[in-house]
Amino acid sequence: MRTLYTDDITRRVAKAVIDMNANLSPDIKSAIDAARDKEGSPIGQTVFDMIEENLALAETKQRPICQDTGMVVAFVTCGQDVHVEGGSLEEAIQQGVSQGYTEGYLRKSVVANPLDRTNTGDNTPAIVYYRIVPGEIFEITLTAKGFGSENKSRLTMLTPSDGEAGVVDFVLDTIERGAPFACAPVIVGVGVGGTFEKSALLAKEALLLPMGYRNENSRYARMESEIIRKGNALGIGPMGMGGRNTVLDVRVKAFPTHIAGLPVAVNMCCYVNRHKKVVF
User: Do 176 and 141 share a structural domain?
Assistant: First the structure.
C-alpha cells in the first residue's frame, strides 16, 4: 500500500497549472517551427513569426501564452493500492487549481451558473475524471482548455451506413467551420464510438496524445493522415489569414459501440494545446 498526502497533491497541481499556461510542450513547439518552414503564404509566415515571438516571451517572462487561460480538465489515474490521507482527493485537486490560478495571476474564466454567469473567482471547479487501475501508480494529467476552440467543437450521431467517409466528412466540415475562429493552426481530437458522452471524452483525451501520434489501427491512422491533408488543403491558414497550415495534427481514439450507432465527436484545440502530467 502506498500513501500520498493531499497537501502534496495540492501543491503540485498548483505548480502545474501555472507552468502549463506559460510553457508549451517541446513537441508542439517543434510542430509549429516545421509549419512555419513550409508555409508559403507571406501573411501566414508573418502570423507564425508572431506566434513564435509570443511563445518565447511567455516562456521567458513566465506569463500566460494566451489571455484565455482556459477551464481545467484533470485526468486522474489512481492505482488500487494507493491510499490518500489528509482529506478529500477531489478537494485537494480543486484547491490546487484555485491556488495556481490565484497565485499565478491567471485569468479566472469559470462561472458558477451557466445562465446567471457569476464568476467563481478562482477558476474552479475543474472537471475531474478518475480511472482506477491495478498497482500503486498515481498521476494527474491537467489541461487548460480555452473556449475559443472549445466553442467550435461538435458531436454527431451518425448511422453505421455513414461509415468511414461519413466520419471524415464530419471532421472536415467541423474544421472548415471552426478553424478560422479557433486560432488556427488547430490540433484536432476525434472520438469515434462508445455512447454520446463517451465519444466526447475520447475526443478530449485524444488532444493529450503527442504530436505525430498515429493510431495503432491502420484504418484510423489512414483517416488521421487524410484529414490532415484535406484540412490543410482548405487554405484557411494560420489565424484564418490564408495559407498551407490549417491543421497541425489530428488524433483519433475509438471505442466499441452499439450495432445501431456511430457517435463521432470532434474536440477542436488551437495551437496552444496546454497540458501537463504530474507523476507521483
Answer: no
Query: Can you give the pTM of this predicted structure?
Result: 0.96
Give 144's strand partners.
72
Query: For 100, what's the count of Cα atoms within 13 Å in the CB-facing half-sphere?
Result: 32
Structural domain for 167, as ranges: 148-273
> Based on the domain organization, do 189 and 264 belong to the same domain?
yes
Cell of 196: 454520446
What pLDDT is stored for residue 51 in this prediction? 97
pLDDT value of position 83:
96
Three-state secondary structure call for residue 188? strand
Whether residue 123 is found in the same domain as residue 247: no
Q: What are phi and psi of 167, to 5 degrees?
A: -65, -50
Can you list the residues of the chain whose pLDDT is less than 70? none
The pLDDT, as a whole number, for residue 125 is 98
Residues 111 and 231 in one domain: no
